[in-house]
Write a structure and sequence with these properties.
400 residues, mainly alpha, 82% helix, 0% strand
């Protein structure tokens, strides 16, 4: 595995830490900016909207640059957004900062995944992408609770200053460690070929499943801190510890899914959504009881965002994905964040703090429905497959 892959994961860790920091600092930021909890939740939504809408355009602009130059430019933009967040004196300025960092973060994901694919051959490409995406899981494991801890002891602004310092260090490591490669852009004809894959109706269903998986997870994740303190009765000082445990669950889940995704793509997503549905319903019903609430929260971490390797694998098999498809897929994933955080905030206003959990359960159920056509196809194929073969393996992929 090239060393550069781990540097790309470190960059994603910095991006994700900034993205998730708001979720762990909601009460402090609400007090500091004179806003309500749902309004702070909309900062998560703004970040996600910026990723989904602005990210692909910035990614296409970065395609004109060599990968190393593109990464450097994105680090600079991201740093500007975080410094603005740390220094913001109003909710409006913070909103602008979140938009800037969201756009840069999405573009970074696209460039990083494309570079990882460019640096590795087919035998380890899936593993390389999983390693890069592990920056997302470690961001949940360490970045979120650490930023929450810093915010609780030194103020929420200190958390964003710390993220800014991390961004500088990561950018320097990337400048030193990433090789100088030519850009992989394919020109106008290549872009036309990439656009043609969007005529595939199945691709849109696959992208929709990814949206529902992430939407179900982020409905709960975006509001874990207020749910744990306001319903479960957990003290604010305990929340960072629970978020570390949640992050550990995502790392474990990502490792398991990463090993199963290639050969059992549909089964992994089906079981993941089913277990997530059970955990979300259980959390909603028993949020007032500390032990069941924490257990179901960890279950969501184990089978929620950890579906990413299976989601990416499914998209690649459906569309033989090239950079533009990967970027659009990331936008659909981000759409799930938007739905989960924004609708979850509206639901809190109307129905209370448990409402986002019920919303997540509904989205998980819809995700299962979106998988039904392919589950039926796989079931028929498995019935016709000789004993010992693996029905979910794509044509041309050799069994172990």
């Amino acid at each position: 595995m090239p060393r550069t892959v781990y540097l790309l994961a470190l960059g994603i860790f910095a991006m994700v830490t900034s993205e998730f920091a708001v979720a762990g600092l909601m009460p402090q930021m609400a007090a500091g900016l004179g806003a309500t909890i749902p309004q702070i939740g909309y900062l998560i939504t703004a970040f996600a909207v910026a990723m989904a809408v602005g990210g692909p355009f910035l990614t296409m602009a970065m395609a004109r640059l060599r990968p190393k130059s593109a990464l450097t430019a994105l680090f600079v933009i991201f740093l500007v957004g975080n410094v603005l967040a740390a220094a913001s004196g109003s909710y409006a300025v913070m909103m602008v900062a979140r938009v800037i960092t969201g756009i840069a973060s999405q573009a970074f994901f696209g460039v990083a995944i494309s570079l990882a694919a460019q640096l590795t051959d087919d035998r380890v490409r899936g593993r390389a992408i999983a390693v890069v995406l592990n920056g997302l899981m470690v961001g949940t494991l360490l970045g979120l609770p650490l930023s929450t801890l810093i915010g609780e002891h030194l103020g929420w602004r200190a958390a964003f200053w710390a993220i800014s310092a991390l961004t500088v260090l990561t950018a320097l490591a990337t400048l030193i460690g990433v090789p100088r490669l030519e850009r992989a852009g394919a020109g106008a004809s290549g872009l036309h070929e990439e656009l043609k894959v969007f005529k595939n109706a199945k691709l849109w269903l696959v992208l929709s499943t990814s949206t529902l998986i992430i939407g179900a997870t982020f409905s709960a994740f975006s509001y874990l801190s207020p749910i744990l303190t306001g319903v479960t009765g957990v003290g604010e000082g305990t929340v960072p510890v629970l978020l570390i445990a949640y992050g550990a669950a995502t790392v474990i889940g990502n490792t398991i899914v990463g090993r199963l995704a290639d050969r059992h793509t549909i089964s992994v997503q089906t079981w993941g959504l089913a277990l997530n549905l059970v955990c979300l319903v259980g959390f909603a019903l028993l949020a007032h009881l500390s032990i069941p609430a924490v257990a179901f929260m960890l279950g969501i971490g184990l089978v929620g965002v950890t579906m990413n390797p299976a989601m990416v694998t499914r998209v690649q098999r459906t569309a033989n994905a090239r950079p533009l498809v990967n970027t659009v897929h990331s936008s659909f994933i981000t759409l799930g964040v938007i739905i989960g955080s924004s609708v979850g905030g509206l639901a809190i206003d109307s129905y209370g703090l448990r409402a986002p959990l019920w919303l997540g359960a509904a989205l998980a159920a819809l995700g299962l429905l979106s998988l039904l056509p392919e589950v039926r196809v796989r079931g028929k194929a498995q019935a016709l497959t000789p004993s010992g073969a693996t029905a979910e393996q794509p044509t041309g992929v050799r069994g172990a």
